Amino acid sequence: MSMQAARSTTILSVRRDGQVALGGDGQVTLGNVVAKADAIKIRKVGGGKVLTGFAGSAADAFALLERFEQKLGDFPDNTRRAAIELAKDWRTDRILRRLEAMLAVVDHQVSLMISGAGDVIEPTDGIIGIGSGGAYAVSAAKALLQHSNLNARQIVEAAMKIAGETCIYTNTNIRVESL
To answer: Can you spell out the DSSP letters for 129-171?
Structure first.
């Protein structure tokens, strides 16, 4: 019996009025079965100054998170540079290239998506959505930003709930951190 790939995640980050929030759902799916409903896919790193979230293989994501923390140690207070250095290593290292994950990284100034293709993307509007429910959560967050007075944390919570009710690979067991 071959192992099925773990899939499913929704990670969302929103900026509003000097606040940034990052949230993740708790669902892990193996094939058509929910294997875990309360996984923690977001972390505070860099002495609590940087929030990270991951989508993809958990083992791969943790390997990348460790390397990202090392890069933050090399470039303290420069999250963008740490992300770029991680992406360069990820793209050029033979072993790292095989890692299948995506990272969302935010601090007080910057919101970034980092991929194994060497991409470091800073969305124009500061909204990040990754994982299978990412597009659903981003759509909901954009609507809430335009049509409500909710703060960043409240928008992430509401948008993640909407994504959890829409995407079969996302649940409503949501964890949110903010800066």
So the answer is: EESTTHHHHHHHHHHHHHH----HHHHHHHHHHHHHHH-TT--
**Would you state the structure tokens that stand for residue 9, as one six-digit string?**
């995640």
Architecture of the domain whose range is 6-178: 4-Layer Sandwich (3.60)
Angle (nearest 5°) at CA 102 between 143 and 3 = 115
Beta bridge partners of 11: 24, 130
Residue tagged active-site, from 9, 52, 79, 170: 9
Q: Measure CA of the first residue to CA of the last residue in the chain; give whole Å.
A: 44
What mean pLDDT, rounded, does the chain reach?
87
- pLDDT tens digits, residue range 12-64? 999 999 999 999 999 888 878 888 899 899 999 999 999 999 887 777 778 78
Q: What's the mean pLDDT in 168-174? A: 91
Catalytic residue status for 79? no
Hey, is 27 helix, strand or coil?
Answer: coil
Quick one: which H or E segment has residue 110? none
Q: Is the pTM of this model over 0.85?
A: yes
Taking the C-alpha atoms of residue 107 and residue 146, their distance in angstroms, rounded to an integer, is 23
